[in-house]
Amino acid sequence: MSDASAVHSSPSSLSYFRWAFIVTVAGLALGALVGWLYTGTVPGTLSIFFICAVLAVLEISLSFDNAVVNANKLKTMTPLWQRRFLTWGILIAVFGMRIVFPLAIVVVAAGIGPIAALDLAINRPHDYAAIMHEAHLGIAAFGGSFLMMVALAYFFDKDKDIHWVKPIERRLSRAADVRGIEITFVLLMIVLFTKLIGPERGGEFMTAAIWGLVTFLVVDVLRHMLDRADKGLDAAARGGMGAFLYLEVLDASFSFDGVIGAFALTQNLFVIAIGLGIGAMYVRSMTIMLVEKGTLAEYRYLEHGAFYAIFILGVIMYCQTMVHIPEVVTGLGGAVLIGIALFSSIRWNRRHGNGD
Prior knowledge:
By secondary structure, this protein is an all-alpha fold. 80% of the residues lie in helices and 0% in strands. The chain has one domain (13-351). It is globular.
């Protein structure tokens, strides 16, 4: 990127959030309308309006590490595929994961058709929420495995030469020569939690967790195959379909926690979609800002903090199959880790003369 374009993109970080602000206003207005249609009262309308706002904050707090990881992958993609991810990807994230995905779970779990599932969501939201909660174990097991593999693949990398928590990360980097070590670690975690959950639902956990592991491996293989095929093309024709596919599955895994956690506040599918959709727009804006401003390069430990947060989120999703862990704890934990990583990066820059 030229110096002129860098100067042009630097005026204000708020400019990156213009569309997020627009969607916030439109979403909260729509939430108020949904509240009025469902309750017909001012207090009921205000209550749903407030829930939409809380869900948006919940999504932002849970997904900041997702924005960092997205930016880390996006910076290697061509501008064409960056735009595709930031346009198609947000549609898939908002409509696919916040509306279609919960309906699909109810369709499979209850053995009913999509129209019947939508009718259930509209007219019998408590029954709809009960089915979603029943499916929580499998969703958490699947998402936990996938996210742990994402984090471990980052740390078990023999070419990784920047280490934040040096005693741990240097050893993990050297251990990357042991073939399949991250897979072995996740399999041991699966066996441990299967034992802890017990025979009644342990089999269900193990099946879903292994599918999460297999999905990561399949997506990773496809990503490398597609990206290798891209390298055979000229620079103008290169796409990044492999990275796009990887990011979409990663986004879906991050969405599991927020979608399930939202049912603790409301059983209304449309309120959940509005609130989490608003939050998803802020995550998109943060991703664009991180890529265009070169924040990851400027703050060397920021992505380390994000991947630690991803690993912990994966473990928490496993733990949530046995005990309830408030989403506030999950969100704050990730934010604190990233905040510490940011502080460490700023301190490193000052020590090495890279500060302002």
